[in-house]
Specification:
Blueprint lengths: L8 H14 L6 H7 L4 H9 L5 H19 L3 H4 L4 H7 L6 E3 L4 H11 L7 E3 L12 H10 L7 E4 L2 H9 L3 E5 L11 E3 L5 H14 L1
Parallel strand pairs: 1-2, 3-4, 4-5
């Protein structure tokens, strides 16, 4: 979702920096780069320390994401990755799911506020799986809910963690350069959903699925 449906990483950086500041933690660029594609429990422990209990980890994660949603509230439309709405509309007859490490409240907020929830037959968030990306569980569960074999699925990812998860699930993986200029291992790298290379690459796959 983050970096694929919404180009939200700049706001995640700002909200993490502000949340950490409120808790007396300086935020470096290395910390910000490290957190891309990770689940909140990993990020909180990375920023605040492994000594935290489960309740503290959850509290910090929930408070930071509430701050993020407040910042995103009036910026949903401008934050959508270019072309995503038209792309989903063109392929609405195909089974599609959201597979993300994000918090369930963020998933619900983004899909509801953007009006994109109608395109997805299933959503799998970071709280529905035991193993976060780069483990393939989130994508394997999404494929199972859609009733589609992994080898017939295409994953869209913006992070190396997500690409690893898609490849480990045995799925073709398309990279978006919203977060990283290069994503080793992807079958195709595009800047956004307006990239003409995307439909050319997808055509033989979607025709066989029709």
């Amino acid at each position: 979702m983050d970096g694929v449906i919404v180009d939200s990483n700049p706001l995640h950086r700002i909200s993490w920096e502000e949340y950490n500041r409120r808790n007396g933690i300086p935020t470096t660029n290395e910390m910000q780069e490290w957190m891309y594609g990770k689940r909140n429990d990993e990020i909180v422990r990375g920023f605040f320390g492994d000594h935290l209990g489960e309740d503290e980890v959850f509290r910090h994660g929930a408070a930071k994401e509430a701050l993020y949603r407040t910042m995103l509230q009036d910026r949903i439309e401008e934050t959508l990755v270019p072309g995503i709405r038209d792309f989903l509309e063109r392929h609405r007859k195909l089974p599609m799911a959201v597979g993300t490490n994000a918090e369930p409240a963020n998933v619900d907020f983004v899909l509801r506020q953007s009006g994109l929830s109608r395109f997805f037959r299933a959503t799998v968030d970071g709280h529905q799986v035991q193993n976060a990306k780069p483990h393939p569980e989130v994508y394997l569960r999404a494929a199972d809910l859609l009733g589609v074999a992994p080898e017939f699925c295409v994953v869209f990812e913006d992070s190396s963690t997500g690409v690893q998860a898609g490849l480990a699930a045995g799925m073709r993986t398309v990279g978006l350069s919203t977060t990283h200029a290069e994503l080793p291992g992807v079958s195709l790298l595009i800047r956004d959903f307006n990239d003409p290379a995307l439909e050319t690459w997808l055509a033989p796959l979607t025709q066989s699925a029709s």
